[in-house]
Amino acid sequence: MNIAAFSHSYLEPENRKNILALTAYASVRVILPSRGPVLIFRNYEFERSHFGRKFFMPFRPLYLFNGQYLLWTSTMGLRRFQPDVINVEYNPWSAMFFQVILYRALFCRRAKLICTVKKNTYRRYPSWRGWLKKWLSRFSFKRIDHIIAASAMAARLYEHKFSVPEHRITKLHHLGVDTSLFVPKPVRQDEATRPITIGYCGRFDVDKGITDLITAVYRVQSRVTRSLVLRLLGDGSLTLELKQQAANTDWLEILPPVANAEVAGFLQDLDIFVLPSRILEDHQEHDAHALLEALAVGVPTIGTRSGIISEILGDGTGLLVRPKEPDELAAAIEELMNDHRARKMLGMRGRKKAENEFALDVIAQQKIKTFQRVLDE
Hints:
Rossmann fold; alpha/beta; seven-stranded parallel beta sheet; 21% strand; six-stranded parallel beta sheet
């Protein structure tokens, strides 16, 4: 099976392990921009290596508007590679998606088109922009053979909003986790006396609920005797504000963004990981990759009922609280702080789930089964 994948996600070196896992079952080429942002943390330049030369085909991006871009290439490599499956990891109303549709029609018309989607809400634009987006979306769906939805919520959106039949949608998480890198850290001898370390890793933006987490930790700190530390790793629109607050708060630490592989060490030093995402009119948590990495490391987790978080933790793998409710979040943090046994149990449960559901080879096998099923239809 020949698979052509289109995504900027693989600019991040750690994410490329997903492609390496896939190559154990098929011939794969990844078409991607030679530079660009990933996870909002930093701009990556594609670095060629032996691994990169074989599986990756970077092209210079032509940026248009609102983060949209096209690739400077006459064939995208499709004429020579001749894929059986084209897996597009872009929204079906994006500029890149339409470039792929055009090049497929020109060079590999018989290839099955499978679209991977993470977005679980639909942003409505006023007047003609809204009409155009809706028309473009419906135009795209007529050319898609199958959809891989990263969450059940995303699957429902495409099923109800765009009338995509249920049998044409497969629920499968976007990226797997390297469970040989993201591993639990041995228990330290000073476990019972050292400060409890609470952490978050991701974007520093309003929708991520960072201020709710700080408020919750402040309330916990004011009523417990054991010392604690809150570490926030990332970057975003709130970075300056958070640094100013940390300068006047002895238990708050702001850490700069790092390459994804280095996140493993950050997570291993935590006692509790929190993903406090909010619910906005046109946004709910749709990726939560840092949460999967925290589970793999065996860190007990707390999340809000925003988008995919409920699906990941809703079986008792972690604690769930309502979004934008610092009091509920504070109570959950305090509960875990005071119960070492519960922290250990949740950590073990999270590690097991990561190994069984989110490991690189598990995701790769599920993708191959989906691609093969679509080819057999």
